[in-house]
Amino acid sequence: MKHSIASALFGASFALAAFSVPAFAAGGGNSDDAATTPTCPKGQVWDSKSRKCVKKTSSAVPDKDRTEYAYTLAKAGRYQEALEMLDTLKNPNTKEALNYRGYATRKLGRTDEGISWYKKSVALDPKYAKVREYLGEAYVIKGQLDLARDQLMTIKSICGTTCEEYRDLHEAIEKPSKI
């Protein structure tokens, strides 16, 4: 009897712990790395300072955290939530915010709208390789491989052929079904 009670308590504790720890989203690449940002329940945002999920309406969460969290949501397939998070930014006109807005809209099937957001990001920082990768992927989706290759060559001039952005876009051009 003692053994079964102990087992039940351990199991309950383990289950409770599993629900209290945020899940991690897939991501990749330096400051754009969504893998380091936990996902939170809908209506919340990850606050890197307090290291916990807080209400997305909290004024204490800076734009940088909101922007990175929007990318985390998008990489987790929560595209509409990502756009809603980007709508909470005090300054939505940063290269990252515009890029992630483009990414989420493209993933929602609105490729042309995504391209327009990517171009705004490029205008702010033409040497931002991540937006060049995503813009190139959008061109692949549209069947505009010449424009995708132009982005690939731009990425090569920014970070060479070994950076993640170059490798990912190169693969997308070679195997469009992987996008």
UniProtKB/TrEMBL annotation:
Specify the signal sequence span. 1-25
**TPR repeat coordinates:** 95-128
- Tell me the protein's name: Uncharacterized protein
Protein origin, superkingdom: Bacteria
Say yes or no: keyword Signal present: yes
Q: Which Gene3D superfamilies match?
A: Tetratricopeptide repeat domain (1.25.40.10)
> Which InterPro entries is this protein grouped with?
TPR-like_helical_dom_sf, TPR_rpt
The protein's UniProt keywords, in alphabetical order, are:
Signal, TPR repeat
Any Pfam family: TPR_11
